[in-house]
Amino acid sequence: MTETIVTNKDIYQELKRRVLKGKYNIKMRLPTEEELIDEFNASRYSIRKAIKQLSDEGLVYSVKGKGVVVLEQTPQTNELNLSLDQVDSLQVLNSTHDFDRITLIAGFQQIIVDEALSHKTSFAVGIPVYAIKRVRRINNKNAVLDINYFNAQLVPDITPEIAKGSIYSYIKKTLGMKIAILKRQLRFERAGQIDYEHLNLGIDNCVGNMVSFAFNDDGRQFEYTESHFIPDNFIFNQILKF
Amino acid sequence: MTETIVTNKDIYQELKRRVLKGKYNIKMRLPTEEELIDEFNASRYSIRKAIKQLSDEGLVYSVKGKGVVVLEQTPQTNELNLSLDQVDSLQVLNSTHDFDRITLIAGFQQIIVDEALSHKTSFAVGIPVYAIKRVRRINNKNAVLDINYFNAQLVPDITPEIAKGSIYSYIKKTLGMKIAILKRQLRFERAGQIDYEHLNLGIDNCVGNMVSFAFNDDGRQFEYTESHFIPDNFIFNQILKF
DNA sequence: GAGTGGTCTAGACCACGGT
DNA sequence: CCGTGGTCTAGACCACTCC
């Protein structure tokens, strides 16, 4: 067989290409696992893994006894809005999108966690944390207010200079810490004093609030962050399978 | 061995119980896959599947070469807020939570998709859809405004009576249609005329907007829905793994 | 180097869909 | 009934962590 060399990693990419180009289009199904095993000369495990990736992205859906159906396409909604999807935290987003943006330090101090802060952040009472406020100025608007708390024992020696850049880059590259998991809550709330101070809310009186708890690969929570953002600029995507 | 009978399904449940009860606590790791294979008398596949479930819930995190670490617990935030997580659509939520709630029909008609509606809903121009507006009154407040569009070819014969109850129940039980996947966008926006008309916004001038595209197991989009909700009452949870 | 989870293969049986 | 994807087993090798 004059088969092009296909690593197992590429199976997913090739299948995705075919779906997007309409080679497998709506009302059709993907070839059966059996057929794909033959075509790519791979094991069932590898084929199923590739299909699962497509499924996680919402491109296809597997039905037992039936096959893998291609879903109708929904329009990409990346128009002029920022899109925060799966892998992006706000810090990552800053480096991957080429928006005109500036980070302003609005507060920087080291404090000890008291009862109230512990309840909010779920850090233990008494530990030292860096409390940092930063304003993200995007396209000439103060669009996001980040309020970070970093466990100073796990993330030591943060400086305003580091905060002005990427703290995550500092954590990963300089400290060599591995970020494992991020638990997020998305709410939206009445704007508070601090929001009116730092954000260009205009007549709006509510903010989005993305609360993040970040854990390293030892299972320790090293960060609590609230990101307050102004209306009409952000979209969060999610895919639910049944 | 006087081993209690453990089906493969229960491995996950048992491991979860141990993590939550602190039998495997922070700073410890889970037993190795090898050990769990022996204990549960199951294959590696089954053990790994169970651990993956725990990992997807944010309870543990697997590190290559190291083991499976237990994550510090974060507080449950189900206080007085509704929590819309993975499996819940608004309709499901209504039946699973015992809030004092009423559904009011604010609009019900069958229309033909025009250019503008097509752009918004991604339904094809010219097809008939049911356009339904419903107000969810929760704890004596008009908290959610649902604006549904159902493809009338795929979801025929909806009546106001059905809309007053659960359309999803009608789709699943009466029509026998399988709901496959739901793509969601979460935004928050300046409140519009329609929101002031139907929601108890008070002085708030913004709404959360959860946009949903639902697909059946033939890959066809049968629904487009916008759920507008008032501030300070809803939380969305998400877990991101790196 | 020893031990861990990540990837991959080969093969079996089950559960569901459609004919 | 046949064909499909879902689950499960057994075994191999690789990549990473840590001593």
TrEMBL record, chains A, B:
InterPro entries registered for this protein in UniProt: Bact_HTH_transcr_reg, Chorismate_lyase_/UTRA_dom_sf, Tscrpt_reg_HTH_GntR, UTRA, WH-like_DNA-bd_sf, WH_DNA-bd_sf
Membrane-spanning intervals of the chain: none
Domain HTH gntR-type: 5-73
Example GO BP: negative regulation of DNA-templated transcription
Keywords noted in UniProt: DNA-binding, Transcription, Transcription regulation
Signal peptide: none
Keyword NAD: no
Source domain of life: Bacteria
Gene Ontology MF terms in the entry: DNA binding; DNA-binding transcription factor activity
Matches recorded under PROSITE patterns: HTH_GNTR
CDD domains registered for this protein in UniProt: WHTH_GntR (cd07377)
PANTHER family named in the record: HTH-TYPE TRANSCRIPTIONAL REGULATOR TRER, MANNOSYL-D-GLYCERATE TRANSPORT/METABOLISM SYSTEM REPRESSOR MNGR-RELATED
Protein name per Swiss-Prot or TrEMBL: Transcription regulator
Organism of provenance: Companilactobacillus mindensis DSM 14500
